[in-house]
Write a structure and sequence with these properties.
71 residues
Length: 71
């Protein structure tokens, strides 16, 4: 049985993004804390990884205030 979506869409997209400098993380590394030791969220429904987002915003906007970062 072939997995057309993975072979023809997902894998080429992941390969291209990695070639552009993106880092690939397996989904298990982003699982909730009760699934993984270093989980980055509490529930699967949390689609925005706040810690990563805040770190990225601070990296590209080092002048941003804590209040604006919170917003």
């Amino acid at each position: 049985m072939t997995n057309d979506e993975y072979d023809k869409v997902e894998l080429p997209a992941l390969t291209q993004l990695q070639q552009l400098g993106w880092t690939y993380l397996h989904g298990a590394q982003l699982a909730p804390a009760f699934y993984a030791e270093n989980g980055e969220r509490e529930y699967f429904r949390e689609v925005v990884l706040e810690k990563r987002l805040k770190a990225a915003l601070l990296r590209i906007n080092p002048w941003i205030s804590d209040e604006n970062l919170r917003r």
